[in-house]
Specification:
With 289 residues, the chain is α/β, with parallel strands linked by helices. Helix content is 36%, strand content 22%. Helix 4 crosses helix 6 and helix 6 packs parallel to helix 10. The protein binds 3,4-dihydroxybenzoic acid and fe (iii) ion. The site of 3,4-dihydroxybenzoic acid has 13 residues, from loops.
Length: 289
C-alpha cells in the first residue's frame, strides 16, 4: 500500500529561480535562505520518496481570472513549465503519475470534492521553484500537482483546504501500489505584493502558523480566508497550500527541520519539514476488527 512519508512547506518566490540560474547560493543575501535547505536534503536522501503531491497556486500561467477552479488536479503524463515573464529559465517538464492521479480524483469525487481534472496542465513557479529547491540535482520523482485558488476571491476556507488535504491523505492510503509519497505545500509565508500594504510581513503570525501546522492544524482552520489575508497579506494567503499539505499527513506528525528568513524578495520565506509516521496501533486495531 502507498505510504505518506511526510510533508514539506516551502516558499516559492520566483527570484529564487534567478538566484539558482546565476549560481548565487553562497551570496550573502541568499546564503541564509539556501543553507536552510540542507536539513531537507538530508531527510529526503534518507526517505527517498517515489512520488510528490504538490499543493500550490497557479498565478496566471495555466488558469486566468476568467476561469478559475477552486481545486484543480493534474492527470497528465508530464507537466510543462513555460515563460511566465519573470525572466527565469523555463524548467524541463516534470513526469506525472497518471494512475495515482486518477485514483485521487476518483476518491476525491466520491468524498464530495468536485475537483477540476486536468489532462493537460502547465505548472508555474509555485510548482517548479519548490521542486528545484528540494532536489537541486533534479530527481526522477513523479509528481501530482493540485492547484488551490488563492488568487481570485472568493477563496476556499482554511477549514475546507484542511479537509481537502485529509481527503487526499485517505485516498493515498487506499492506493494499492507500494509507493512512498511526499506531500508539498508551497508559497507564503506572510507577504503582500501590491496595494497600500505592499511589503507587509507578520513574523509573529508566521511563527505561530509554523508551530500549529505541526501540533494543531485545526487551530488554523478556525480562521476565515479573509482573516488570513489580514494577518498574512493578500499573497500570504498562500498559507492555504500549507494547510492542505498538513491535512494529508494522517499519522503521528513531528517536525524534522525548519527555517524562517526575512526577506526573500517581498516575502517572509519559510521551510518546514514534517515526518509522518503511520498510526500502527490504529491500523492493527482496524485489521483486528
Ligand atoms: C513573490 C512572491 C510570490 O509568492 C510570488 O508568487 C511572486 C513573487 C515575491 O516576493 O517577489
Ligand atoms: Fe506566489
Amino acid at each position: 500500500m502507498a505510504k505518506i512519508v511526510g510533508g514539506i512547506g516551502t516558499t516559492h518566490v520566483p527570484a529564487i529561480g534567478g538566484a539558482i540560474a546565476k549560481g548565487l547560493q553562497r551570496d550573502p543575501y541568499w546564503r541564509p535562505f539556501f543553507d536552510g535547505f540542507a536539513g531537507a536534503h538530508k531527510w529526503l536522501g534518507a526517505v527517498q520518496p517515489d512520488v510528490v503531491v504538490v499543493f500550490y497556486n497557479d498565478h496566471g500561467l495555466n488558469f486566468f481570472l476568467d476561469k478559475m477552479p477552486t481545486f484543480a488536479i493534474g492527470a497528465a503524463g508530464e507537466y510543462r513549465h513555460a515563460d511566465e515573464g519573470w525572466g527565469l529559465p523555463v524548467s524541463r517538464p516534470y513526469p506525472g503519475d497518471t494512475a495515482l492521479s486518477w485514483h485521487l480524483i476518483e476518491q476525491l469525487v466520491a468524498d464530495e470534492f468536485d475537483v477540476t481534472m486536468c489532462q493537460e496542465m502547465l505548472v508555474d513557479h509555485a510548482f517548479t521553484i519548490p521542486l528545484a529547491l528540494l532536489w537541486p540535482e533534479r530527481s526522477a520523482v513523479r509528481t501530482v500537482p493540485i492547484a488551490i485558488n488563492t488568487v481570485q476571491h472568493p477563496l476556499p476556507s482554511p477549514a475546507r483546504c484542511l479537509r481537502l488535504g485529509r481527503a487526499i491523505g485517505r485516498a493515498i492510503e487506499s492506493y494499492k501500489a507500494d509507493l512512498k509519497v511526499l506531500i508539498v505545500g508551497t508559497g507564503g509565508l506572510s507577504h503582500q505584493l501590491d496595494g497600500k500594504r505592499a511589503g507587509f510581513i507578520n513574523k509573529e503570525f508566521d511563527l505561530m502558523c509554523m508551530e500549529k501546522l505541526v501540533s494543531d492544524p485545526d487551530r488554523l482552520a478556525r480562521y476565515s480566508s479573509l482573516q488570513i489575508v489580514e494577518e498574512a497579506g493578500s499573497q500570504g494567503v498562500e498559507l492555504l497550500n500549507w494547510i492542505a499539505m498538513r491535512g494529508a499527513l494522517t499519522g503521528d506528525v513531528s517536525r524534522v527541520h525548519g527555517n524562517y528568513h526575512i526577506p526573500i524578495s517581498n516575502t517572509a520565506s519559510a521551510l518546514l519539514v514534517m515526518e509522518n509516521r503511520a498510526l500502527e496501533l490504529a491500523t492493527t486495531y482496524r485489521k483486528a476488527g
